[in-house]
Amino acid sequence: MTTSFETVTSADGTPIAFERSGEGAPVVLVGGAFNDRTTVAALAATLATDFTVFAYDRRGRGDSGAGAVYSVEHEVEDLAAVIDHVGGPAAVFGHSSGAVLGLEAAARGVAMTSLAVYEPPYVVDDSRPKPAVDLFDRVRTLIADGDRDAAVELFLVEGTATPAEIIKGMRDAPVWGWFTGLADTLPYDLALCGPGNVLPADRLAKISVPTLVMDGGESDAWMRAGARAVAGTIPGARYVTVEGQDHGVLREPDVLRGLLTEFLR
């Protein structure tokens, strides 16, 4: 499979980098927190036999610029710029906060043929505490103070409800260096999800493109509840549970191939 590296300039002048692979209708992959284009590369390879796949670095990650000022609108413009560059409209797949970005872009009218999202992290029930409304400010302050370890831990504990024993294992593993390396982008993910990760029902109800909402059969209850709520809010959305999977589904991209190939065509 041939992969080419390209860049496009977003509306505010920020360069956005991506890799193109495969042949067929265009599909853009959008990763979540602690992700860049390399972490969706396996899914890109899985889909490249049926589509032209575009895996991009969200701003501040990989080879993309960070821009002078962050806003959700700029992130939506980045995705729109990639889609426009590839001759849009295009199908979009988003994972976690990347799913939120895909939903926000669709609600704002970015040109898509279809949208598939996996576990957008909205908190809609009492199975976990909602993130505090000041979490964005506290994570950003830790990053500004140079304490990237504490910023990552705070994001995981309060933002994703990751148990303390799992975080301890992460700290002792090579992946922790990857997490701290992307700590600067955690406020972006928090801004996308909004204070308290509240489901923006009014915005999502405006989405008119065909939408597939997925969760994992082994995922935390709050993530599954959020996925069901998203599907119930978007007119005509399809909801599917991927049995045997959890939030880390990108590690086993072949389990998504059938669903995405059928839906995104």
Automatic annotation (TrEMBL):
MF terms from GO for this chain are: hydrolase activity
**What keywords were assigned to this record?**
Hydrolase
Superkingdom, taxonomy of origin? Bacteria
Which Pfam families does this UniProt record tie to the protein?
A: Abhydrolase_6
For this protein, the record's Gene3D superfamilies field holds: alpha/beta hydrolase
For the AB hydrolase-1 domain, which residue ranges apply?
27-256
In the record, which residues are listed under signal peptide?
none
For the keyword Zinc-finger, the answer is no
Against SUPFAM superfamilies, the record matches this protein to: alpha/beta-Hydrolases
Q: What InterPro entries does the entry give?
A: AB_hydrolase, AB_hydrolase_1, AB_hydrolase_fold
Name recorded for this polypeptide:
Alpha/beta hydrolase
